[in-house]
Design brief:
By secondary structure, the protein is an alpha+beta fold. The protein folds into two domains: about 260 residues, FAD/NAD(P)-binding domain; about 150 residues, Elongation Factor Tu (Ef-tu), domain 3 (Beta Barrel). Helix content is about 30%, strand content about 25%. It has 13 helices and 21 strands. The strands form five sheets. Strands 1, 2, 7, 8, 9, 10 and 20 form a seven-stranded mixed beta sheet that branches. Helix 1 packs parallel to helix 13. The radius of gyration is 25 Å and the shape is elongated. The two termini are about 20 Å apart. Bound molecules: flavin-adenine dinucleotide (FAD). Flavin-adenine dinucleotide binds next to helix 1, helix 2 and helix 13.
Length: about 425
């Protein structure tokens, strides 16, 4: 009989095992992949964006009830994680908006996670599938786990199987389906932090693929969703880049995106300013947007395609601004300040960085991640309906939820040990 079996030896599962009080319990990690923690390996382009300085801020997380994450993030925020990480000789550097990357790369993070788990006495079996799990509460909580390695029994069961994005590296929705099979509520998983597909005449023939520019993107049909001031990248099939990955987590089928191209300059009220002061503008639009005003600069290919789509409605781009009718300036202002695009869908699980949705948090205790209906059963990491922004927040959730479960389980086991005398 094991004290704890963990299904999934990824970020959350390994961190959980390494956070148990060393030598106090028999812990086994089971993973169906051959390679350890593949998502950690490929994260952050191999450099692993392990957390974010703002990682304890609740508004960086979403789900049906993001406030559920408060206790875990307060109990174990980025500083707590970093102090353990640094104590073991690893270091980080900040890249952009608080994103902290591991200086030693993602392989070093995996070695560290695995080393911690081993130091705490955890055993691990890889390339092993779980076929069925049977809770049995006749003599205190116990789980019978049917695996490739035979039938195993455990007092407590931790589900850390992550989400189904990137199925090619062993990702699955097993944890979500298992929760549902027990009658627990599930928020249907959907791809998040994912490129969006787009079919517009002005983007046809992929003329813009590879072009990147700064935008502010928002969802006019969902004012509760945040807007993001980040880079957008045109791809062969649509839109990507940080701005689009971020908004994709909030986007629902059928909704439009509102884009403000060159957000810094346009926040000053582009069209009205130009209408008022156009007499003094001796520059052509072509020169103005081509770099004469650095805050308004836009890639030429983008201007050609986007403005080209309005065709004869605008004066020639080489015409100086003072010659433009007010109506045309306002039309241009509308286009640059409130462009509307309707994605046709997402690039799906193959390209998504995370799954939004998962085990409904109303089923779990926010202090321990334990199921309210099944004592002894815990869900941690991405399998839970808490999803972070791009930038280290999803790992921070994995660490914080794993830490909470480890503290709770250590306390329960301590109780058993005391009872045993
Ligand atoms: C390309 C990419 C880049 C990313 N970069 C970052 C980043 O830089 N920063 C960040 O914060 N987040 C990043 N993420 C997200 C982050 O990797 C995940 O949110 C995080 O790994 C979730 O941890 P987890 O332990 O819940 O799941 P995982 O780390 O995915 O671990 C789940 C484990 O469960 C195993 N498993 C699944 N099903 C079963 C089953 N049926 N039986 C047995 N084992 C099973 C899997 O093999 C896996 O080892 C990235 C994701 C992707 C895809």
């Amino acid at each position: 009989m094991h004290d704890v079996i963990v299904v999934g030896a990824g970020a959350a599962g390994l961190f959980f095992a390494g956070s148990l009080v060393p030598g106090r319990c028999r812990v086994l990690l089971i993973d169906h992949s051959r390679k350890l923690a593949e998502k950690v390996r490929i994260s952050g382009g191999g450099r692993c964006n392990i957390t974010n300085l703002e990682g304890a801020k609740l508004d960086r997380y979403h789900g049906q009830e993001p406030r559920f994450a408060r206790q875990a993030l307060n109990a174990f925020g980025p500083e707590a994680f970093l102090s353990q990480f640094r104590r073991d000789g690893l270091s980080v550097h900040e890249k952009h908006r608080g994103q902290l990357f591991c200086d030693q790369g993602s392989e070093a993070v995996i070695r560290w996670l695995d080393g911690r788990a081993q130091a705490a006495g955890a055993k691990r079996i890889m390339a092993t599938s779980v076929h069925a799990v049977q809770p049995d509460f006749d003599d205190g909580p116990c789980f019978r786990i049917d695996t490739d390695a035979g039938v195993l029994r455990s007092r407590m069961l931790v589900i850390a199987t992550g989400g189904p994005s990137i199925p090619a590296i062993g990702a699955s929705d097993w944890g979500q389906r298992f929760a549902q099979s027990l009658g627990l509520k599930l928020v249907k998983p959907r791809p998040a932090l994912v490129p969006l597909n787009l079919q517009t005449a002005w983007m046809a023939n992929a003329a813009l693929a590879g072009v990147s520019l700064r935008v502010r993107v928002s969802l006019p049909e969902d004012r509760s969703a945040p807007s993001f001031d980040e880079d957008l990248l045109f791809t062969h099939r649509g839109l990507s880049g940080p701005a689009i990955l971020q908004i994709s987590s909030y986007w629902a089928e059928g909704q439009t995106l509102e884009l403000r191209w060159a957000p810094k300059a346009l926040s000053r009220g582009f069209a009205e300013h130009w209408v008022k002061h156009k007499a003094a503008q001796r520059l052509s639009l072509e020169r103005m947007l081509g770099g004469a005003d650095p805050e308004l600069a836009m890639p030429k290919r983008f201007l050609q395609q986007r403005l080209g789509s309005l065709g004869a409605q605008l004066p020639d781009l080489s015409t100086t601004i003072d010659q433009w009718p007010d109506r045309a300036i306002r039309q241009l202002g509308d286009l640059f300040e409130r462009d509307r695009l309707q994605p046709t869908g997402t690039e799906g699980w193959k390209k998504a960085e995370v799954a939004a949705g998962g085990v409904d948090v109303s089923e779990l205790d926010p202090r321990s991640m334990q199921s309210l209906k099944y004592p002894g059963l815990f869900f941690i990491g991405e399998v839970v309906d808490i999803t972070g922004w791009l930038g280290g927040y999803n790992f921070q959730w994995a660490w914080a939820s794993a830490w909470s479960a480890a503290r709770a389980i250590s306390a329960i086991l301590e109780g058993y040990l005391n009872e045993r005398g």
